[in-house]
Amino acid sequence: MVISPYWQTIFGHRHCTQIMASIDRTAYPHFNKRLSDKELSNCYGLNDEEQDFIHRYARNDRGYLVLSVILKTRQRLGYFAALQNVPNQIVTHLSAQLEVDSALRRNISISIVEAWKPTLWPKLRSLPFCI
User: Fold this and answer.
1) Entry pTM
2) How confident is the model at residue 40 (pLDDT cuts 50, 70, 90)?
3) Within a domain: residue 129?
4) How far apart, in whole angstroms, are the C-alpha atoms of residue 92 and residue 84?
5) For residues 117 and 80, is the Cβ–Cβ distance under 8 A?
């Protein structure tokens, strides 16, 4: 299928703009569908090493939940997803493994999430992106 360009005039100059594909049709990793129980276990299951890591660095149930969500979504997507964009299904699955209440997700500030990133870089064998 050939998409013809859409021409528009901006400040007297003609610009060609292409119609972009939806996020669901791109290679960019994202949360796009409801996962089966098997997919949840395979993608978001916590192994013993990860649970030890979480319990070593977090101090309370809220910290366990936040750190596990950040860890597993970063492993799966390859980037740190905004916590509010993580589907409830994944949060509930992780909270069940840690035996904490999934409602602890509410009222978590961005600064808490940002504070965990340096802790995760060595675990994920990654570095922060700098310009």
Assistant:
1) 0.71
2) very high
3) no
4) 13
5) yes
